[in-house]
């Protein structure tokens, strides 16, 4: 079972493909979004990425620590054993962690609410779901940067 109810609320769980990395989140997500940017495409190998955001103080990890890569301010984590992408962090949003939807045990429970970086959307891949479509990022960064 991917979610259980505690006195604090739902516990959201996930991990990598091989099980070396596991995580739990003790609070509800603050965000779920599609990202069409080229960096996310390269990081995931998919035409679009989907992320579920949580505050970092509610996240706990078990098992392997995984590996990370990236160029500041964004760092992406993945399992060093199976290569599965896990999450990304943005140092401009230090209190948040964005898990890949596929890393969640019950991805069907986290429907995205917006599309980001649609200016980079592949011309042959369009999701016509009526959600808002942002030309760049969907979460404002304190510095006002667009990337």
Can you give a write-up of this model?
With 147 residues, the protein is mostly beta strands. Helices cover 5% and strands 37% of the residues. The protein contains 1 helix and 11 strands; from the N terminus they run ββββαβββββββ. The chain has one helix at 38-44, and strands at residues 3-6, 9-15, 21-25, 31-35, 49-55, 59-63, 67-69, 74-78, 85-90, 96-100, 115-116.
Defining key terms:
147 residues, mainly beta, 7-stranded mixed beta sheet, 4-stranded antiparallel beta sheet, 1 helix, 37% strand, globular
TL;DR of this structure?
This protein is mostly beta strands.
Please trace the helix and strand order, writing H or E for each element.
EEEEHEEEEEEE
Radius of gyration: 15 Å
Q: Describe the main β-sheet briefly.
A: 7 strands, mixed
Number of strands: 11
Count of alpha and pi helical runs: 1
Q: What is the end-to-end distance?
A: 36 Å
Q: Would you spell out the secondary-structure blueprint of this structure?
A:
Elements: E1 3-6, E2 9-15, E3 21-25, E4 31-35, H1 38-44, E5 49-55, E6 59-63, E7 67-69, E8 74-78, E9 85-90, E10 96-100, E11 115-116
Parallel strand pairs: 4-11
Antiparallel strand pairs: 1-2, 2-3, 3-6, 4-5, 5-10, 7-8, 8-9, 9-10
């Amino acid at each position: 079972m991917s979610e259980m109810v505690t006195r604090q609320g739902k516990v959201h769980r996930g991990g990598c493909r091989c099980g070396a990395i596991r995580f739990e989140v003790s609070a509800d997500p603050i965000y779920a979004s599609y990202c069409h940017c080229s960096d996310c495409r390269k990081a995931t190998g998919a035409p679009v990425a989907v992320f579920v955001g949580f505050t970092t103080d509610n996240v706990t990890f078990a098992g392997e620590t995984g590996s990370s890569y990236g160029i500041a301010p964004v760092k992406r984590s993945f399992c060093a054993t199976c290569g599965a992408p896990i999450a990304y962090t943005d140092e401009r949003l230090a209190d948040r962690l964005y898990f890949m939807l596929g890393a969640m045990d019950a991805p069907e429970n986290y429907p995205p609410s917006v599309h980001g970086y649609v200016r980079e959307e592949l011309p042959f891949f369009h999701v016509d779901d009526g959600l808002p479509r942002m030309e760049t990022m969907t979460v404002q960064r304190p510095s006002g940067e667009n990337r």
